[in-house]
Amino acid sequence: MSRNFTSDNITPVSAEILAAINSANADSVPSYGGDPYTRRLADAASGVFETEVAIYPVTTGTAANALALSQFTQGFSAIYCYEAAHIVTDECGAPEFFTGGAKLIGLPAGDGRIGAAQITAAAAFAREMGVHHVKPAVISITQSTEWGTVYDLGHIEQIAAAGKAESLPLHMDGARFANALVHLKCTPAEMTWKRGVDVLSLGATKNGAMCAEAVVFFNPKMAADFERRRKRAGHLLSKLRFVSAQLLAYFDDDLWLRNAARANAAAEHLAEGLRTIPAARLLHPVDANEIFVSMPETLLVALEAEGFGFYRWPLCVPERDVAIRLVTSFETRLSDVDEFLAACRRLA
Amino acid sequence: MSRNFTSDNITPVSAEILAAINSANADSVPSYGGDPYTRRLADAASGVFETEVAIYPVTTGTAANALALSQFTQGFSAIYCYEAAHIVTDECGAPEFFTGGAKLIGLPAGDGRIGAAQITAAAAFAREMGVHHVKPAVISITQSTEWGTVYDLGHIEQIAAAGKAESLPLHMDGARFANALVHLKCTPAEMTWKRGVDVLSLGATKNGAMCAEAVVFFNPKMAADFERRRKRAGHLLSKLRFVSAQLLAYFDDDLWLRNAARANAAAEHLAEGLRTIPAARLLHPVDANEIFVSMPETLLVALEAEGFGFYRWPLCVPERDVAIRLVTSFETRLSDVDEFLAACRRLA
Amino acid sequence: MSRNFTSDNITPVSAEILAAINSANADSVPSYGGDPYTRRLADAASGVFETEVAIYPVTTGTAANALALSQFTQGFSAIYCYEAAHIVTDECGAPEFFTGGAKLIGLPAGDGRIGAAQITAAAAFAREMGVHHVKPAVISITQSTEWGTVYDLGHIEQIAAAGKAESLPLHMDGARFANALVHLKCTPAEMTWKRGVDVLSLGATKNGAMCAEAVVFFNPKMAADFERRRKRAGHLLSKLRFVSAQLLAYFDDDLWLRNAARANAAAEHLAEGLRTIPAARLLHPVDANEIFVSMPETLLVALEAEGFGFYRWPLCVPERDVAIRLVTSFETRLSDVDEFLAACRRLA
Amino acid sequence: MSRNFTSDNITPVSAEILAAINSANADSVPSYGGDPYTRRLADAASGVFETEVAIYPVTTGTAANALALSQFTQGFSAIYCYEAAHIVTDECGAPEFFTGGAKLIGLPAGDGRIGAAQITAAAAFAREMGVHHVKPAVISITQSTEWGTVYDLGHIEQIAAAGKAESLPLHMDGARFANALVHLKCTPAEMTWKRGVDVLSLGATKNGAMCAEAVVFFNPKMAADFERRRKRAGHLLSKLRFVSAQLLAYFDDDLWLRNAARANAAAEHLAEGLRTIPAARLLHPVDANEIFVSMPETLLVALEAEGFGFYRWPLCVPERDVAIRLVTSFETRLSDVDEFLAACRRLA
User: Which of A10, A74, B334, D328 could form a disulfide with D28 if both were Cys (CB 3.0 to 4.6 A apart)?
Assistant: First the structure.
């Protein structure tokens, strides 16, 4: 990373995960998930989540999200989510594609966290509209959110309860799931099925894996025919062992939590520093490993000239100020952060 | 109609149109649009619009809209429109279905009329997002709008120009096209291709037809393969002559304008009356044949008890007040309106 | 018709049906199927089929077929049918569109009638292939078939039983349902649910209606959310009463059977005549109102020169001979047939 | 491998490719294909194919095929291919999914190789059917074929020419592309664009890679918007460098050809041996690394009891005999083959 805060997917792979890939290469094993790594992963995931889960490894978060949502929807369905959720703005229509045209109904939300009352209101609106409107089918929340905030456990529970009252299952986009876990200091079970989450897109790629995400159903009965969904989307790898092995290493010895803790700590350090810099204004609470901050364009240009990397963030909510996003990762050292802060102070 | 203001699609068929259906029944004619009525319609429509058009009759407005939009989109496309447009909230996902999952990006708008600057901003956002975001493909506006207002000609021209600058064609949902024409006192050409509209969903059913809508391309070259789209959607009728005959009668002797003028006049009369009733608050300008008005619930109940019909309008923009929609049609007599107004005054 | 044997959808509308349309025009009635005609139709259809059915009127057979099949399929589904079924070759991909890409698996069949053993074998193949293959979901048969033959009741029962053994419901494409009924001299119930048919596309347009087809579920519980499918496909007409009224008249006083009997009688008369003409060779048994016959090209040209109409039939099974299709209808007079036969004899 | 001939996707990863993955892990690099590996791959592929190509790495062959086909089709399109092609029977409907419901029209073919005349006939049939039939859009052939045979160069040229005459581009499913190259002793250019192939699904996973396939367009202009197709299907990996690095190593120092040559040699050795065993009957010529052979069930059981692995092949063409498939790979030693042959002789 050093000076590059553009994203957490620019990083290499954690040494432990790369080692696991290498050692999975020993032998011939059955393809398409019939291998021992994939079987062990099912057990490991059930252990991690303290309940029997059905877990389906895939190679991208977009695939995980779109496949998970398609399990609960038909073409005439409504998916309720935050109006600037990753599934709305960053997946090039994958959810619509995989669901056969279900409608993502985006709800406004401060800091990226939608509220239970919005679900209730949206479902009531759908009921009034009847057959002319799409039918409420599923809720999706992102944890950590798109703005680097984290839903607390009570909040998740409220959304799940509002959904259950309307027979709507709850999907969690966990592209940065481990960062939220670390922030909340809770167990994976507490942040998911114990609060009413039905299906999870579990991300690992941004937190040290090479290409490993997974769809996790907390009630395996909800996964009927999911295998065929994955296959017909081209997301069933023949040599699936190499993805499963990544996830085994990811869970092993809490690698995922250790990696996320490093990323979160760097982000917190960065946020603390930025709060002391008058030219910088933090736009959201910093709960995980993403920081959204506005700065004068002149300062941004000067930082870039010194080799610092970050994204100017395109805002779909136009009235907000210009902003940049800074992302930390398991690779970010506190000294990298200090360098950035020092440059900010010097150049401001 | 009498006391029933719920919608303009509860009406019978205009006598002229029913007569046309009856006289189209004389003989055997080729099926699937090879009949003389459909051929004559192509000529008639080109005359009405003062340019050679390609016209495709269908039986519902939802089909017309979804088919028209599908002609300009792919699954990874963005369709820009008003956030509470009929295509967004009232067609049960038909546009997503017909387009293979294109995303309707809803823009906020007072009185249902989006602005050219919103198109420019949305396209710029898409450009910044790159491959992760859907690709801008087409704009859709509704004329008359969902709130009974009408875009003036300059407004249409500005939106079309903003679209053309981004290579986006312009679709007009003309479910109540004739009502807008009558309001603007302009020609069909002036309200469409002369202002940059590329494709029109022309509605007739709400204005006196039985089941007759049409997709009209102002540049027939843009209609390549459209026939197959209509066919595979099940919208190519074998005895298409009976739809074409409706549209011929609709244009003939300006029936469409005469019908719309009656509906608009009744709406204007109703709006004028409501303005004098303190308990009623008009929510939007009344340009066409729909009136949105808020009234006390007690008054609404009393009106219903006297047999008046209207819709309590479910509002997807939750902060607005409770409202009802009143719709007039070619069948509405001014005396019907007067009865309603008198009841309002008496019961308020 | 007179000399035109190209199709049964070139005909006008039966007088009784046109009269019903006219008398349905009296008043304002609720739209989108909330009208009394549509309610009466539900009762009438349940009477006709001797069981409570759920009936959904639409305006084309392609819509009826594609909607019906979509109710039982997902994108990863297999639909088993005859390899040259109308849904395979004549609907421009509508079934694939409505089902989100389900695969029509065409089975070879003499005279257009598939066999129960083929279903069993195809399901066994799918089972062996597992997740890599589409999942068996539904069977579709056409009655009368695409070649003018009719499945007898025992045959339907066998196919249904083979399907039930694999949990596959049975769809019947009844574009020419009444012609088969008349041929078999059985009741609608006997030809459908009593033999295991779950859903029927009931055609009326080719047999005297203007634009009236219907999807009929023999177990209304199987129709969950079907309303939304129809709506989002643009096939829910606002003034639905005019379609329902056609179907009411169609059933009334056995109009449908009387019309089909006339068409079948004309076809039988034609087939009998052709059997006596050496130059003509009947390609299939003539059970309903379609006749496939091969003749020398010189004779065909001569017949056309005298104004007779028919289709040279494109055969997707290339090894078969050149052929024409002759279709009779409720409008065909026996004298029309005699004229055609006389011309054949004279010109051969 | 040793005694396991079930498939070529059960193998580990070639040492050279695993090494390349490891060395790609050094640094932070831009994500989503902005990395230097992916850029170098574009150059390398253009060198390999002796023309400027556009190459898009993905992780499965199903994704490569379905994405490639979707580039040339619409929902109302026809794709012509062999009736038992992998895209028809083994991809769970992925082509239909990605194309929005295009129809795969399967053509019968001895040894899996369709003929140019079949394309011409199918296109003529479509023309006769007009708007009622799907529109011819693209041809797909598999090289090596599903039965382990290889199209010779003249054959490819004829199919391409028949396609070009109907404006149909030609797709090649090259899951076992290198095996065909080695068999024909020709260059990649000679087997593709020089013979009229427009787009290639290039497989590497079965021939030594971990999860690396690619869509290769020989005319980069044909790849417009393909990036978005890949993204919205969830097939744009964030850490794409690790797939690109595999393909770089695959091409480097002719690894792909060396691996394929080993697999082909083992297959040839196996075929030669089987020809001398009376109980075995080869079902197709053995051009590449797949062998289809019929044997008595008793012999198969005995072989399995000794630990040999192979697939009993489900045949979708039911009249053929029971068969097994034996697959060799870059890992298969000739001694493995000899062991198998000895067992056959001993147990027969």
Answer: A10
| DSSP notation for C304-318 | HHTT-B-EEPPPSST
The reply to whether D183 and D62 lie within a common domain is yes
What pLDDT digit, counting tens, does each position of D283-304 carry?
999 999 999 999 998 999 999 9
**What's the confidence (pLDDT) of residue A348?**
86
Q: Residue B249 is part of a domain; what is its CATH number?
A: 3.40.640.10
pLDDT (0 to 100) of residue B320? 46
Across the interface, whether the CB atoms of D32 and B131 are under 8 A apart is answered yes
Chain D CB contacts of C104 below 8 Å? 103
Sign of CA dihedral C240, C245, C248, C250: negative
Half-sphere exposure of B218 (CA within 13 A, CB side): 23
b/e burial code for range C172-195 (CB count within 10 A of at least 16 → b): bbbbbbbbbbbbbebebbebbbbb
User: Does residue D10 lie in a domain region?
Assistant: no
Q: What is the CA radius of gyration of chain C?
A: 20
Decide if B10 is inside a domain. Answer: no
Q: d(Cα A239, Cα A256) in Å, to the nearest integer? A: 23
- Quick one: chain C helix, strand, coil %, rounded to 5? 45, 15, 40
- Give C57→chain A minimum CA distance, Å: 16
- Among A44, A2, A3, smallest CA distance to A309 is for A3
CB contact under 8 A, D96 and C90: no
Q: Does C91 contact chain D (CB < 8 Å)?
A: yes
Q: Cα dihedral sign for B221, B224, B229, B231? A: positive
Minimal C-alpha gap between A130 and chain D (Å): 27
Residues D215 and D265 grouped into a single domain: no
Q: What's the pLDDT score for residue B316?
A: 52
Question: Do D76 and D218 fall within a single domain?
Answer: yes
pLDDT value at B77 more than 70: yes
Write the pLDDT tens digit of every residue in B246-271.
999 999 999 999 999 999 999 999 99
**Domain range spanning residue A283?**
256-347
CATH number of residue A272's parent domain: 3.90.1150.10
Q: Do B10 and C2 touch (CB under 8 A)?
A: no
Whether D314 and D247 share a structural domain: no
Residues B247 and B260 grouped into a single domain: no
pTM above 0.90, yes or no: yes
Q: Do A90 and B125 touch (CB under 8 A)?
A: no
Residues linked to residue D81 through DSSP beta bridges, in sequence order: D106
Q: In sequence order, what DSSP letters do the residues of C93-155 get, joined into one string?
A: THHHHHHTSPEEEEE--GGG---HHHHHHHHHHHHHHGGGSPEEEEEEEESS-TTS----HHH
Q: Which positions in chain B touch D134 (Cβ < 8 Å)? A: 228, 232
The sheet with strand C324-327 has its strands ordered as C281-282, C290-294, C324-327, C311-312
Verify whether the Cβ–Cβ distance C132 to D92 is below 8 Å.
Answer: yes
Task: Give the pLDDT confidence of A170-218 residue by residue, as tens digits.
Answer: 999 999 999 999 999 999 999 999 999 999 999 999 999 999 999 999 9
Q: pLDDT tens for residues A275-289?
A: 999 999 999 999 999
pLDDT score recorded for residue B319: 44
Say whether the ipTM exceeds 0.90.
Answer: yes
C28 cis-preceded (ω within 30 degrees of 0): no
Q: What 3-state class would DSSP assign to C41?
A: helix
Q: Give the residue from D224, D255, D286 where a domain finishes.
A: D255
Three-state secondary-structure class, residue A197: coil
H or E segment to which residue B210 belongs: none
**Across the interface, do A129 and B314 touch by the CB < 8 Å criterion?**
yes
Other CB atoms within 10 A of residue C251 CB: 17
User: Looking at the partner chain, which of D75, D135, D228 has a beta carbon nearest the beta carbon of B131?
Assistant: D228
User: What token pair was written down for A342?
Assistant: 């020092």
Facing residue for D205 by CB, picked from A94, A97, A239: A239
B29 domain-assigned: yes
